[in-house]
Amino acid sequence: MTKFEITTETKDHYSVTLHRIKALRDIPRHGVKTGDLGGWIEKEANLSQDGDAWIGGNASVGGNASVWGNARVWGNARVWGNARVWDDASVWDDARVWGNAELTHTQHHITIGPVGSENITVTLYRTADGHQVQAGCWGPGTLDELKTEVKRREKDEWAHRDPADVGRWAAQYKYIRKLGEAVAASWDAERAAAKAVQA
């Protein structure tokens, strides 16, 4: 049974036309009723017609990204590139999931913000073979690459800023990195355990 339709309501997102979706059946697990407007997709392939997956609020999914199973993308979240969100995963708030991300569980990403001089959101997410970080407009990259970027900003962009602000921003990124390393290690262990079961 068809779960949603693409409405005539559109919006431009960085030169890509996104289309609002509308529910054609109830999806109780996500509080969706027939006729409710959902979030935004670039094309029908971004959201499976099967299962209870849903894109709500002002969330958007585009490129070759796909959402299926019982997954939910909502709030102001964005899922792009070749990212895949499925099973019971949830992506919400201002999370940004890009590239080759693979989220099968809500804890396959973490979002922290506001951070730094621009009050951005930093999202760390699991990929098939590691992790990626999206920090505002910067990224995707690794935690090590984020560390290098922060050092560059300290030297080039924050040099004439209030030292108290610079200290706070540097500390934010330092602890994001520490938390990110612990989370990424747990994902590595999860992948290793899954491979051991398959062997």
TrEMBL record:
<protein>
    <submittedName>
        <fullName>Uncharacterized protein</fullName>
    </submittedName>
</protein>
<dbReference type="InterPro" id="IPR011004">
    <property type="entry name" value="Trimer_LpxA-like_sf"/>
</dbReference>
